[in-house]
Write a structure and sequence with these properties.
- It is elongated, with a radius of gyration of 16 Å.
- The longest helix has 30 residues.
- It is built from 2 helices and no strands.
- The two termini are 22 Å apart.
- With 64 residues, it is mainly α.
- 86% of the residues lie in helices and 0% in strands.
Length: 64
């Protein structure tokens, strides 16, 4: 099953990648590669929990 790529999805993915890229790049510049890698891993862990919570919220709100 294919999901359509909407403008919202493109904006969401582009803006989040830009934000994380800037933060990790700054950390790499200031503190080195290990700090950037840790930031990237922590971002994914935290964002995964946020998306799970938000998905459950919308699923319960909009289900029949």
């Amino acid at each position: 099953m294919k999901n359509p790529v909407t403008k919202t999805i493109l904006f969401y993915s582009s803006s989040m990648n830009l934000l994380v890229g800037l933060i990790c790049g700054w950390l790499y510049w200031q503190n080195g590669l290990l700090a950037a890698i840790m930031c990237h891993m922590l971002f994914h862990l935290i964002w995964y929990m946020f998306e799970r919570f938000e998905f459950k919220f919308y699923e319960s709100k909009y289900s029949n």
